[in-house]
């Protein structure tokens, strides 16, 4: 429409000098010129003014439309994401409307009645977007997300990824997969309250519930020695700590039971819950316990070095474990001993001892081939390595949902890769949502999280950088709890105890409600939940 | 354009913060967390100043880790060349995904993957809880 208008204008006033109009060089031009000249005399009195301004307006309108279409094509080709596309297009909505209104006026002034009527129609069509001051209309699209029950604390059901449904009101949809299948257990009574309270007034309540929510994530670890994955996460210090806690009685009792119970790992260790009973897990647990027996003895290895050995130094358990499981050790597969020995060789660089002595106390030794198999050094090594890899693959199969039915290493690997990529995309999507939800960024936000602070890991307490939602957009509050002296953080750090944290949260909430960060008044929302103890 | 840049940069920073906090929560216990923290530290330095220095440092670290990995790999896998064609591409892809995965043995890689997957799931949960706070 605007193009034709532009063409008309161009034909109408090709190259006439100023002030001279109505030349009858072409009949249609003349006719229009006469018609238009009347309008000119009535209006600008200038032959070219309104014509060229119409032309310029049309060119600008066309350019902005082209730019919007280009942006959408970029979106379709995945060069930009929907947030960027929306912000780009949103920037041009008002100028578009202004240009259209200007074009309408110019056409009215210059007397092109037909084109004026058309552009008036278009302007009136776009008017309801602007006249009722409803800002929602300005957005190209909106995403409404509902996050249902992020975790299922029912210990029998394994890991459930979050179900994210995004409903868009435009045909453009995100390229990333947004639906993660899960079944969601009903949340606790706190869950329903999360959406209910009015944000402006009940910030304390919200923050408390948030704390509650996070706290439910970081449940106290009830570590059970009988699962492989539990043993994976136990470090030496943690095991020692477990010894001193009042829990070790349960620990050893459960270990002696040998019953597989689901457990909660700590958040710092990637807290999830694992499915219960399965024979590979049981076998793997026994396998791992045997390795623990070794790693416990080679504990003097420096924990820092990793590239050399397996995670032997990570898989260490308390002293009570080997005694409980040694009874079962005798009847187990002798191939594991070779693997044990291999691990010891890897970590300790000890020489391989081929004697078939007492296998239980010494960390290395004791190759015992099975019946009908080659006793070659290399084949034994290879077999042990393959068994180790198979055990780890089984562990991964438990971890990734839907992998249990797949057989074949390549397919399982593909599934695992797919899962990791999905999770990374989810992180990116959530970060985009958070970026869109928060108003501004702090200039030092980046430096907080990327500077290396080695003291953080060594210390044996937890700290929590806590995002507290602001009550109203005007008061931008920066709240951080960090132990290190940070120039943004004069607040106290909190130790992660349930009651104290709650108390700290609510009181400091009141006291720092009007706190402005020294750098600027932007609100920074970030969360970094660190481990409770060294685990 | 400025709004788009702002949101893009903001989301980048949030993502970096998420990964950095995840790595720091795990600490030095895991190879992937160490690799991730190193990468973040070096990339942070690279963004600010002395790009050439940071790039050189990163290359040094990479060759060091790769050298260690190769040495140990040859020590252990003396006899094992089992089915490289079958699991080659998948394992390479996995090495690319898991931070620090290039210099790892396959067993170590699988274990780090397991831990990494759990940590990622937890991170996703935490971030979704945070995102739930805002409308």
TrEMBL record, chain A:
Residues 166-185 have a biased composition (Polar residues). The chain crosses the membrane at residues 55-75, 96-118. One of its GO terms (cellular component) is nucleus. GO terms for molecular function: DNA-binding transcription factor activity; protein dimerization activity. Residues 333-350 have a biased composition (Basic residues). The keyword rRNA processing does not apply. GO terms for biological process: vesicle-mediated transport. Residues 166-196, 298-363 are annotated as: Disordered. This is BHLH domain-containing protein. It comes from Trapa natans.
From TrEMBL, chain B:
Keywords: Transcription, Transcription regulation. The keyword Manganese does not apply. Residues 10-42 form the IBH1-like N-terminal domain. InterPro entries: IBH1-like, IBH1_N. One of its GO terms (biological process) is regulation of DNA-templated transcription. This is IBH1-like N-terminal domain-containing protein. It comes from Trapa natans (Water chestnut). The lineage of its organism: Eukaryota, Viridiplantae, Streptophyta, Embryophyta, Tracheophyta.
């Amino acid at each position: 429409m605007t193009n034709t208008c532009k063409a008309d204008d161009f034909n109408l006033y090709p190259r006439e000098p100023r002030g001279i109009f109505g030349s009858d060089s072409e009949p249609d031009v003349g006719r229009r010129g006469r018609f238009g000249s009347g309008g000119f005399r009535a209006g600008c009195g200038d032959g070219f003014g309104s014509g060229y301004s119409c032309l310029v307006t049309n060119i600008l309108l066309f350019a902005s439309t082209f730019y919007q279409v280009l942006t959408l094509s970029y979106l379709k080709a995945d060069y930009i994401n929907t947030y960027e596309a929306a912000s780009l297009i949103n920037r041009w909505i008002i100028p578009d409307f202004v240009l259209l209104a200007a074009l309408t006026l110019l056409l009215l002034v210059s007397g092109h009645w037909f084109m004026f009527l058309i552009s008036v129609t278009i302007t009136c069509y776009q008017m309801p977007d602007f006249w009722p001051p409803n800002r929602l209309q300005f957005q190209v699209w909106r995403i409404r997300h509902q996050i249902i029950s992020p975790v299922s604390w029912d210990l029998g059901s394994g890991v459930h990824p979050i179900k994210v449904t995004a409903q868009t009101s435009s045909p453009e949809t995100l390229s990333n997969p947004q639906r993660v299948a899960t079944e969601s257990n009903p949340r606790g009574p706190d869950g329903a309250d999360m959406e209910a309270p009015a944000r402006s007034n009940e910030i304390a309540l919200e923050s408390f519930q948030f704390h509650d929510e996070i706290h439910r994530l970081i449940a106290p670890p009830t570590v059970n020695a009988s699962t492989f994955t539990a043993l994976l996460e136990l470090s030496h210090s943690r095991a020692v700590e477990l010894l001193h806690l009042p829990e070790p009685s349960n620990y050893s009792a459960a270990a002696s039971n040998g019953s597989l119970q689901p457990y909660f790992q700590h958040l710092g260790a990637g807290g999830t819950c694992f499915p219960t009973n399965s024979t590979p897990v049981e076998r793997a647990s026994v396998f791992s316990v045997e390795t623990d027996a070794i790693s416990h003895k080679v504990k003097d290895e420096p924990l820092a070095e990793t590239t050399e050995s397996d995670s032997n130094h990570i898989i260490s358990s308390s002293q009570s474990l080997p005694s409980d499981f040694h009874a079962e050790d005798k009847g187990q597969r002798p191939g594991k001993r070779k693997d044990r020995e291999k691990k010891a060789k890897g970590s300790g660089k000890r020489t391989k001892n081929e004697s078939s002595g007492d296998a239980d106390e010494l960390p290395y030794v004791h190759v015992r081939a099975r019946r009908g198999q080659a006793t070659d050094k290399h084949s034994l090594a290879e077999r042990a390595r393959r068994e180790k890899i198979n055990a780890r693959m089984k562990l991964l199969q438990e971890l990734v949902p839907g992998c249990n039915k797949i057989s074949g290493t390549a397919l399982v690997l593909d599934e695992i890769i797919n899962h990791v990529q999905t999770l990374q995309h989810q992180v990116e999507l959530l970060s985009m949502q958070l970026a869109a939800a928060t108003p501004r960024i702090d200039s030092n936000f980046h430096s907080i999280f990327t500077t290396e602070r080695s003291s953080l890991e060594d210390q044996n307490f937890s700290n929590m950088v806590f995002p507290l939602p602001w009550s109203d957009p005007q008061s931008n509050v920066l709240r951080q709890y960090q132990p290190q002296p940070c120039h943004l953080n004069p607040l106290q750090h909190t130790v992660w105890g349930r009651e104290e944290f709650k108390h700290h949260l609510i009181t400091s909430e009141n006291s720092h409600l009007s706190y402005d960060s020294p750098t600027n008044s932007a609100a920074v929302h970030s969360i970094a939940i660190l481990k409770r103890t060294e685990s | 354009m400025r709004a788009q840049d702002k949101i893009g940069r903001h989301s980048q920073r949030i993502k970096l913060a998420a990964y950095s906090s995840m790595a720091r929560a795990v600490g030095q216990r895991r190879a992937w967390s160490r690799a991730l923290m190193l990468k973040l530290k070096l990339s942070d330095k690279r963004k600010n100043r002395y790009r050439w220095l940071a790039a050189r440092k990163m290359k040094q670290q990479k060759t060091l880790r790769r050298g260690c990995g190769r040495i140990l790999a040859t020590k252990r896998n003396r006899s094992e060349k089992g089915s490289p064609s079958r699991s080659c591409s998948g394992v390479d892809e996995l090495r690319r995904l898991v931070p620090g995965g290039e210099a790892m043995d396959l067993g170590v890689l699988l274990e780090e993957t397991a831990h990494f997957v759990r940590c990622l799931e937890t991170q996703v949960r935490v971030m979704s809880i945070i995102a739930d706070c805002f409308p």
